[in-house]
Amino acid sequence: MTPKKNDIGRRGRGRPQSFDRTQALYAAMRLFWDRGYEGTSFDDLITAMGISPSSFYNAFKSKEALYQEAIEAYAQASGAWFYDILGEPADTRTTLERLLTFAAAEFTRDDLPAGCMIAVAATQCSPSQARLRELMATQRTQYETAMANRLRLGVNLGDLPATTDIDALAAFYMSLIRGMVVQARDGAARERLLEIARIGMQAWPTKDGGSSAA
Amino acid sequence: MTPKKNDIGRRGRGRPQSFDRTQALYAAMRLFWDRGYEGTSFDDLITAMGISPSSFYNAFKSKEALYQEAIEAYAQASGAWFYDILGEPADTRTTLERLLTFAAAEFTRDDLPAGCMIAVAATQCSPSQARLRELMATQRTQYETAMANRLRLGVNLGDLPATTDIDALAAFYMSLIRGMVVQARDGAARERLLEIARIGMQAWPTKDGGSSAA
DNA sequence: TTTTTTTTGGTGTCATCGCTCCACAAATCC
DNA sequence: GGATTTGTGGAGCGATGACACCAAAAAAAA
B156 partner at 20 to 30 Å CA-CA among A126, B51, B76, B185? Predict the structure, then answer.
């Protein structure tokens, strides 16, 4: 709570900002996370951020620009585990298992809104928000591509059969994760998400690429 | 386009409605389906329904009441396949397989909005829409409960191991379906959803309740 | 035909949304 | 200290959202 200096430092002469820009951004992020873009009003934002409209406009340009910044902040703060785990030097199956387990935990933290800010955002919105919708779809595609790349590496490493349909497998696990997000937002307990994750790992491809039926 | 009589018939004396209430309701349903509740404005609605504000108010009471009617219409028209398939006299695995396959097809019809009206609706919304949010969560719970009941029947029929965690398995498949909805809304092709469904069936419990690993 | 009941089109209204403007305050620079 | 530069609080604004009202219209009932 100690008022820190702005992270980008003084920009020259003139009156300094009376608020912590980073802190305000995080407050906005949490609101957007919980309520979505359209569900968060300007007044909600400036109240939660503790600043006036003019300060808002001066520091963040517009609600839409703030949302984009909030997404970036989310990706770096609360979404980094995804890429972190993908980059760990474990075998591919273990990596996916850790990813799902971590997702279950992250989606049910009691110090942050439930679920994920990006996973199901702007899937239903007014046509005037088409840009936002495409932005979120792009974000989701990027996460899915990152997973696909890790799975492809798994094929190269011999962790997965050469016949594996990488893109489909990535789509499957991302679908599962997004469904977990809906569960979390509807109030599901962490244990429930962990069970979903465990069952999801049963779908992991076998050497013969076939079913798990006896 | 021929003006049909209202499906509930004349209600007595007085001027008859000049529009088809059912048709107007379906037009509203499609808008809500595509844009969500908050993303659909009053003007959008009356334009798509082809009626005036007073006719709207007279016939549907309010936007929120209309939304509830739209959900019911959706459940009966575009969501019925879910319960239909659950009620088919196939073995449990086949039933789930058909459910996922049908979902992939239904979520990518070109004559209707992509995805599902309920699966990811109101997961992020303003606090003023708390009632709506709970309504949608309840709807989702009902679909999940219906699936759980069918799975429980499967245990009783011997289609599933007695040790199966029914609720977890239902949560898993509903999560997958909801994730498929996000994929569909982001523009995924039907084939992609079918692949997700196919992979999802790999997670089907085996007799030993264990992994499919060799 | 007259009365009664119901629907309709058009307009008005009140609140909210997302800014925007401006006079002032608080720093730095000289 | 004065000039300059930048941020701030608060008031206001145009647009949109979701109705709400009312007089006219159109049908059945008498």
Answer: B76
In chain B, the domains with their CATH numbers are 21-74 (1.10.10.60), 78-201 (1.10.357.10)
Of A83, A102, A88, A78, give the one whose Cα is nearest residue A146.
A83
Considering CB atoms only, which of B119, B171, B196 is closest to A172?
B196
CA-based Rg of chain A, rounded to a whole angstrom? Answer: 20
Q: How far apart are CA B190 and CA B102, in angstroms?
A: 10
- The one-letter code for the residue type at A179 is G
Angle subtended by helix axes A166-185 and A92-106, to nearest 10: 20
A125, B35 in Cβ contact below 8 A?
yes
Residue A9, CB, strand D, below 7 Å: no
Q: CA angle at residue B185 from B180 to B187, to 5 degrees?
A: 100
- Give the residue from chain B lying closest to A174, CA to CA: B179
Dihedral angle computed from the Cα positions of residues A83, A85, A86 and A88, in that order, rounded to the nearest 10 degrees: 120
For tokens 């962790």, what's the residue?
A159
Return the beta strands (E) in chain B as ranges. Answer: none
